[in-house]
C-alpha cells in the first residue's frame, strides 16, 4: 500500500514527508534504523497560500518528481514476530540517541535492565572482562 512508501506529501505550498521507516514494528515488520529525514524546504511551512507565488509545480518540482516515482521509494523489510533482541542494531542505536526515561524511577529501571544485560554479555563471552567490569559485577 501507499502507506509504506517514503515520499513527500504535497498540498499547495506545504510539503510533509511520509516516513514509514520510523514505525515499521507497529505493522509487524522488522524495524530498521530509519533514514535521515529529508529536506522539506522549511520555507514553505506556515506560509499563507493567499500571498506570494502560486506556481507550486515549479517551486516544488523536485518533490513532485519524487512523488511521481513513488513506487521506487517503497520500504521493503521482512516481517518480524516477537520481541527484538537487546542487541538488535535498531535498539543499540535507540539507546545511544534517545532519552530513555523521564523520572528517577524510570532511570533506575533502565540502569537495572542495562546492568543485567551487561552481566549476561560478560558471562556469555560477548564482551571481554576488564578491571572495570569486575568492579561492576561486584
TrEMBL record:
* Entry superkingdom: Eukaryota
Protein's GO biological process: meristem maintenance
Q: What is this protein called?
A: Aminotransferase-like plant mobile domain-containing protein
Q: Which residues form the Aminotransferase-like plant mobile domain?
A: 3-94
Which InterPro entries does this entry report, sorted A to Z? AminoTfrase-like_pln_mobile, MAIN-like
Q: Name one Pfam family in it.
A: PMD
Amino acid at each position: 500500500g501507499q502507506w509504506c512508501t517514503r515520499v513527500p506529501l504535497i498540498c499547495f505550498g506545504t510539503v510533509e514527508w511520509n516516513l514509514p521507516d520510523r514505525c515499521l514494528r507497529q505493522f509487524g515488520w522488522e524495524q530498521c534504523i530509519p533514514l535521515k529525514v529529508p529536506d522539506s524546504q522549511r520555507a514553505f511551512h506556515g506560509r499563507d497560500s493567499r500571498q506570494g507565488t502560486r506556481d507550486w509545480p515549479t517551486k516544488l518540482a523536485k518533490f513532485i518528481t519524487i512523488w511521481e516515482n513513488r513506487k521506487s521509494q517503497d520500504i521493503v523489510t521482512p516481517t518480524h514476530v516477537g520481541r527484538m533482541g537487546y542487541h538488535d542494531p535498531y535498539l543499540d542505536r535507540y539507546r545511544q540517541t534517545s532519552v530513555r526515561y523521564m523520572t528517577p524511577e524510570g532511570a533506575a529501571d533502565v540502569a537495572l535492565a542495562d546492568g543485567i544485560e551487561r552481566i549476561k554479555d560478560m558471562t556469555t563471552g560477548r564482551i571481554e572482562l576488564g578491571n572495570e567490569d569486575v568492579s561492576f559485577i561486584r
